[in-house]
Amino acid sequence: MIAGLRNLARLIVIARTLSRHDALFPLALLSGTPRVGWLARRLGRERTAGTRRRGERLADALQELGPTFIKLGQALSTRPDLLGADVAEDLSRLQDRLTPFDGDTAMSVVARELGRPVETLFSTFDPNAVAAASIAQVHRAVTTEGEVVAVKVLRPGVEAGFARDLSLFLWLARLTERLDRGMRRLRPVEAVETFADSVRSEMDLRLEAAAASELRENFIDVPWFRVPEVDWQRTARGVMTLEWIDGIPVDEKERLIAAGHDVRTILSHAANSFFTQVFRDGFFHADMHAGNAFIAADGTLVVIDFGIMGRLDRSTRDHLADMLIGFVMRDYDLVADVHFRAGWIPRHQSPASFAQAVRSIAEPIMERPLNEISIGRLLAQLFEVTERFDMQAQPQLLLLQKTMLMAEGMGRQLDPTINMWTLSRPLIEDWLRENRGPEARMRRFAAEFVANVVRLPELLDKMETAADRIAEAEADRLQRSVRARPRFWPWLAALVFLAVALAAV
Questions:
Q1: In the chain, how many domains are there?
Q2: Residues 193, 311: one domain?
Q3: Is there a single domain that holds both residue 392 and residue 335?
Q4: Cα distance between residue 415 and residue 433, in whole Å
Q5: Could you give the CA distance from residue 414 to residue 319 in angstroms, rounded to a whole number?
Q6: Is 307 in the same domain as 362?
């Protein structure tokens, strides 16, 4: 009861902020609760319509509401199926920047987390943060061994504030599912839980360090792509230490050219690294905006900030590859087949109708000049179409689509005449030949067959054990049944004896 009242009080504050920015339109999504939708339309009557887009107004409101809502807006930018592609695109520009906390507090957090005084770990520690966000901020330091490092420090008290807001989001999601059947397809509770897991992971800097370490290992033999090395001895739950990176932000085209870097080579490296992360490794950097990518003096592409990472299992990668092949070949029956084969579209839907819907959104895009074709925008429109076919949201694909849009936007800033995906075409063709061609399918079939043969004795043992348990259970049941059965035989014997005795008399 108290929690419910607290949530209602917080909702009033949120509603007032949204109303002040004319950003109450998300409430109108509750089609199953017309009174809520009507109230949202009455309160937010687009007073500033014509001057600022809906997504811009919503982004401003979320910025004012604080760190959790900034993160929520960034998460919603991956869900064009919820608010529309235009709003999602505006939310993707939401900047996670806050006023830094003081250096003394940062050093006390470092000392507490690492269990040692700061001066025994670092010969110098700059108290002024070089960057500050909602969850953590970064300081430049030099270790006692003389290495220049970036020290990321968790913001004090951040966990309590996020926990309060996440509890509110979950309460609202459950309420939405109960009130509006139409929203259940979008799985709001699952979306909030996924968001909460992501935020909790970001607040354990050891997990971010592990992500950086894994990505670094995946590209250890690639000379033109680099991930900063983790200093594990100076990393804990609330502190992460990485090697310091000097470089030019990837979106500063004039500086890059002045430094002698080739824009086309940078785009090629960015496209190849992204394709490799997604299809070869199934583990990709999912926050690839220009602030997280730099070009070092030797031309190496360096990435930072590993709080948001995406994973795709082998099956999803295969389905995604087949789907992209279908789009490139304009084989929309193949695209439809992938969706049904993956189980993304319910079986009662019509594959032919879905293929026709896919054609309707793909043809206008594929007819454009090559440098204007956007795979990210194509996927965004595809997810909008799938709503009519009861496709449940696929969080991993939505995160991938958002990352593709970020990468394409970064590419257009560097050179709008080049489609970055065409630069990685040789790599893509080699990968498809190795992994999706007939020989690859035969190899995979053979490998799966051998694996199943190897597992056969184990499976037989498990079947035999299960059969023994079933037999024992059945025998035990029969035995209990016999024990529970009424004992008529002694009474019948007594009656027979009595009858014989009476007859004798």
A1: 3
A2: no
A3: yes
A4: 29
A5: 31
A6: yes
Residue 273 has a CB neighbour count (10 Å cut-off) of: 24
pLDDT tens, position by position, 77-89: 766 666 777 787 7
pLDDT for position 80: 67
Q: What is the pLDDT of residues 278-333, one digit of tens each?
A: 989 999 998 887 788 999 999 999 999 998 888 999 888 888 888 888 887 888 89
Q: Given 22, 81, 287, 318, which residue is catalytic?
A: 287
Taking the CA atoms of the chain, what radius of gyration do you get in angstroms? 30
Report helix, strand and coil shares of the chain as percent, to nearest 5: 65, 10, 25
352 and 411: one domain?
yes
468 is catalytic: no
DSSP E strands: which ranges in 91-215?
122-125, 131-132, 136-143, 148-154
Domain match, 301 and 174 both: no
Q: Beta 293-295 vs 301-303: how paired, if at all?
A: antiparallel
List Cα–Cα distances, 276 to 42, 214, 317, 428, in angstroms: 49, 14, 11, 9
Model confidence, pTM: 0.74
DSSP state of 236: B
Helices 158-179 & 188-202, crossing angle to 10 degrees? 170
| 106 lies in some domain | no
Q: What distance in Å separates the CA atoms of residue 67 and residue 340, rounded to the nearest whole number?
A: 39
Would 257 be classed as within a structural domain? yes
Q: Which domain holds residue 476?
A: 460-504
